[in-house]
Amino acid sequence: MAEGAENARVRELQARLRQAGVFDRAPTGFYGSITTAAVRSYQRGHGLSVTGSVDQKTWDKLVAATHRPTAAELRPPTTNVLDKPDPRCMTGRVLCISKESRTLAWMIDGKVVSAMDVRFGSENTPTREGIFKVEWKARDWTSTIYHSPMPYSMFFSGGQAVHYSADFAARGYNGASHGCVNVRDRSKLASVFDQVKVGDKVVVHW
């Protein structure tokens, strides 16, 4: 396994790395820079070649030192751990959205006011990255294209919005959006929706 992979085996890897004390967040199934750093740390501490990729020796050593992850370890109910905020999120009022940690942080002047899990679009309908602003909001909205409910929508790039997703709440990361930023914690999003103003900054980053 190596950076860029996204599958069930990567999720198991992350859960085992968490057991080993080198991965401090919920498994996502995506092998990004945080997973690479955790693998390097594990390899360094166990006399293995420090590559950041998982070869057979690394995998065998990790499997021998850990137990098969339970369902709760693979998909813990707790919120994903925030990564270091993008520098563009450190000033003003910002919805800071990380594809790496799959989190949204509502930040004001560099301080996190609220944070929640998010998921994104698939390869065919990717969530756009960059700096945007909240163009308009709708507490009750139904997609005009897909005809699915989008409560607490905050549109930031054409038809792409941050919104609550009942599907995400039910299926977790087994599904994907059509490009929007899905939130599964309705009460947290409702609170943030009431605080966010049209014109507030949105940063979507890795």
From TrEMBL:
Pfam families on file: PG_binding_1, YkuD
Record bears the keyword Lipoprotein: yes
GO cellular component: extracellular region
Keywords on record: Cell shape, Cell wall biogenesis/degradation, Lipoprotein, Peptidoglycan synthesis, Transferase
PROSITE patterns: LD_TPASE
Domain L,D-TPase catalytic stretches: 93-205
InterPro entries: LD-transpeptidase (IPR050979), LD_TPept_cat_dom (IPR005490), Peptidoglycan-bd-like (IPR002477), PGBD-like_sf (IPR036365), PGBDSf (IPR036366), Transpep_catalytic_dom (IPR038063)
Active site positions, chain numbering: 163 (proton donor/acceptor), 180 (nucleophile)
Keyword tRNA-binding: no
GO biological processes: cell wall organization; peptidoglycan-protein cross-linking; regulation of cell shape
Protein name (database record): Lipoprotein
Native species: Streptomyces laurentii
